[in-house]
Design goal:
Length: 227
């Protein structure tokens, strides 16, 4: 793969789709949403800016405010630190770095060339990361106004959507576990264990819905105008 270091090539080869560590949709904690490959992800033709683990450079000075308002090196350190946390939790490393870079962007959006420059990775590496993030519904693609370039954007209400999808996963898990408990028999140790697991997921689902309701109420209070 032209313009890629050996390390980048290995990471890109491994970042071909969501991790099969689970059956959910929350990529941040390493749960799977399927392995269907993404399609039609246009990442442009910007040449590789060089391999490196640091997130130096970039087309958005400050990344979190106006030009010169934020220390670029500090922003880069944040991007790499948060990406490392996401990777530790189960997300693919390159996808984690791209996600963190988008999160730290003032507009929550960047082009392929901007991501490649900021993270010092190749367009092919960006492509693999975007494919992963698109599959787990963490980013969407929009056309850059006035150009033919695509811009990758973080979803609005990202965490709300993520946890809502997790709720749907818990519902499926609970259903399958209850069926398994009935099959194993309530009088068996395996049946009792499986039934308790189903009960736990039902409890967790209820608590998550309650938490999301409280979060929505909190946001309204936080955004309410001060008298």
């Amino acid at each position: 793969m032209t313009g890629m270091s050996t390390r980048e090539a290995e990471e890109t080869a491994g970042d071909t789709g969501p991790s099969a560590a689970g059956a959910g949709t929350d990529a941040g904690v390493g749960v799977d949403v399927g392995t269907e490959p993404g399609s039609g992800v246009d990442v442009g033709t910007e040449p590789d800016s060089g391999a490196g683990a640091g997130a130096g450079g970039g087309a958005e000075p400050g990344a979190g405010g106006g030009a010169g308002a934020v220390d670029d090196e500090a922003v880069s350190r944040f991007v790499e630190r948060f990406a490392a946390e996401l990777t530790e939790a189960g997300m693919q490393r390159m996808a984690a770095r791209v996600f963190a870079a988008l999160l730290a962007s003032e507009t929550a959006s960047m082009t392929s060339a901007e991501l490649a420059e900021r993270l010092r990775i190749s367009p092919a590496a960006v492509s693999g990361a975007i494919r992963y993030l698109s599959q787990v519904s963490m980013v969407s693609r929009e056309r850059d106004p006035g150009t033919r370039r695509d811009r990758y954007v973080l979803h609005n209400e990202l965490w709300y959507e993520t946890f809502t999808r997790r709720d749907q996963v818990l519902t499926r898990w609970e259903k399958v576990l209850r069926e398994g408990a009935a099959t194993l028999g309530p009088g068996t140790a395996a049946g009792a264990r499986t039934a308790e697991t189903a009960e736990f997921f039902a409890f967790l689902q209820h608590e998550m819905l309650s938490v999301m309701d409280r979060w929505a109420a909190h946001k309204k209070t936080r955004n309410a105008p001060t008298p």
